[in-house]
Structure formats: C-alpha cells, structure tokens
Backbone:
C-alpha cells in the first residue's frame, strides 16, 4: 500500500508525552539526562520533571548540530526515523507543513534559519504530530480525549494541541 499522507496515530500512546512532560517524545539517553530527564518510560521515552524542561529539551535538540544540516521538512528523517516503531518520516514532514502552513521555501530552511516565532510554530506542529487531536484531523479514543482534556484543564496554555504519535530521537 502507498504510504499515508500524514503521520499515523497510535492512540494507546497519545497521552504518554503529557505524563512524561515530553512534548517532543525525546528518547531517554545522555542528551535527555543532560536536559534534566529523571527516567524513562518502558517505551524508552524520557520523563522530564516539568513541561518547561521537556519543551526546552525539544527546542535545544532541534537547535543542535545534530539537526543543523536538515531542512525542517526533513527533520523527521532523524527525529522519527523509519523502522523505529510505526514512524513514517515523509508523512511526518507532510503533517508538519500542513500544521504550520509554511510554504515550500520555508520548509527548505533549517530550524536555526527560522525566526523565533516560526520555531515556536514548528515545535507546536511537532507536538501535534506527536500527540493526536481532533483539530489535527486525528480523533483520539474517548479515554485518551478525556485524559487530554483533564491535562489541559490542570495546565492551561500547555500543549493544547495533540497530534499523531512519533518519536524524538535523542541526539
């Protein structure tokens, strides 16, 4: 079958990044530890002590030399590589463009070439691809949707967008 035009959803894992304070689904390892990760879930994703630590880890990792030679369209080739679970980096990149609304010229830039506002938009799009939401065209299971609503109610302004699941690779 032809690859999906957008990243696939694994509804059983959609809430895990929220529990982990890990909006980018960064894998546990030396980088995550350096950024304050306190442990790992059974699936290998890092657990951060708070949401801000997880968001900082995502931003710093995207700004690092490990991603410097990737366009923002191609970052999923490293962030969520094929063969790691059900990842589809092409679909992930297509989803990022859809969710950001960026044109092809902007998608050809590296993360560090984006303005701070564009970087924030890009990270939020990644979070949507990592989590699953009705606003992203993906409908999580009723139990996951209830959990997400509870998390949003407890943390207004945090991860109000959830999107299909992927995996941030520790760089």
Residues:
């Amino acid at each position: 079958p032809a690859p999906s035009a957008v990243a696939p959803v694994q509804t059983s894992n959609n809430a895990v990044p929220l529990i982990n304070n890990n909006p980018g689904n960064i894998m546990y390892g030396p980088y995550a530890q350096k950024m304050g990760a306190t442990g790992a879930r059974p699936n290998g994703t890092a657990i951060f002590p708070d949401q801000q630590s997880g968001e900082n880890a995502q931003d710093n990792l995207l700004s690092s030399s490990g991603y410097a030679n990737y366009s923002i369209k191609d970052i999923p080739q490293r962030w969520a590589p094929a063969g790691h679970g059900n990842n589809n980096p092409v679909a992930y990149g297509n989803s990022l463009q859809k969710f950001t609304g960026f044109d092809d010229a902007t998608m050809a830039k590296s993360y560090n070439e984006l303005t701070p506002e564009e970087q924030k938009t890009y990270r939020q799009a990644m979070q949507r691809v990592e989590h699953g939401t009705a606003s992203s065209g993906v409908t999580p299971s009723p139990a996951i949707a209830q959990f997400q609503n509870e998390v949003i109610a407890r943390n207004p302004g945090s991860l109000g967008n959830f999107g299909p699941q992927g995996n941030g690779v520790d760089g």
